Amino acid sequence: MKQVTTFGKELWEQIDKDDVFGVAAQLAYFFLLSLFPLLIVLISLLPYLPITQEDIFAIVRDFAPKEIMSLLEDNLSAVTTKNGALLSIGIIGTLWSASAAINGIMRAFNKAYDVVESRSFIVARGIAMLLTISMVFVFLVALLLPVFGRQIGLFIFDAFGLTEQFLSIWNALRWLASPLIIFIIFSGLYWFAPNKRLTNVTVIPGSLFATIGWILSSYAFSYYVSNFGNYSATYGSIGGIIILMIWFYLTGIIIMIGGEINALLNKYSKVKNT
Fold first, then answer.
1. Membrane-spanning regions, if any (predicted)?
2. Axis-axis angle for helices 20-45, 2-17 (nearest 10)
3. Of the candidates 31, 27, 35, which has an alpha carbon nearest to the alpha carbon of residue 76?
4. What is the C-alpha to C-alpha distance for residues 216 and 210, in angstroms, rounded to an integer?
5. Which one of 78, 99, 115, 244 is CB 3.0 to 4.6 Å from 129, fit for a cystine?
6. Residue 253 and residue 109: Cα distance in Å, rounded?
7. Domain that includes residue 165, residue range
8. Cβ–Cβ contacts within 10 Å for residue 202, how many?
9. What percentage of the chain carries pLDDT values higher than 90?
10. Tens of pLDDT along 146-180?
């Protein structure tokens, strides 16, 4: 119990030292800038995949307040209608814009680990773009699992002669894709974003915290907005944007605290090995 208390105290000191709440506000701004370019990339890939725009929104709808969904659906429809012909031509520029949030996370994690960014601007932004592309790929896999999950389960069932119970378990597990995909995305960020050589095992604690914390905080915020928070009455027509920014701010805090947990555990590991 004493160790947990000591860890919590040191974690709070690191959060205060690295100005996590201030950095989270910066990340919220980058998330907003990156949101629509990232969604445009996803939408532009739909003609080549057996999924629809509604499938993409369905996953976001599980966590986001309904006011955010209305904002996203209305604005994205307008953007894709006007610029649909340019999506394939400007894909690199779109990815460059979408990677702004990842680039901000990389700088924040470097601060958490007390390391200096030695990678050049082009290399660092290239890594940010690759991480963005990886996130898109993993997100698409999450969308495809519910679509093809049953066919995959039937194939395994027939190939190995498994029982009917396996199909029941498989059908339940494949719908847990969203939390798993969130965990994979966070793990990738915590592993590759800092300018520091890390092992995949060392990022698991922060990834677990971020996954559970983000899901719980998103549900709690969605419930609060739906039942108590009347942002439209206070902010008028921009109430949806305010809600979106607060959600992004909470997301930034969760991501940063997860990174601080990993950085502090890495510090403990170095002290123990010396």
1. 20-46, 85-106, 127-149, 169-192, 204-225, 237-265
2. 80
3. 35
4. 10
5. 99
6. 12
7. 2-273
8. 15
9. 16
10. 555 666 666 666 666 666 676 677 666 666 767 88
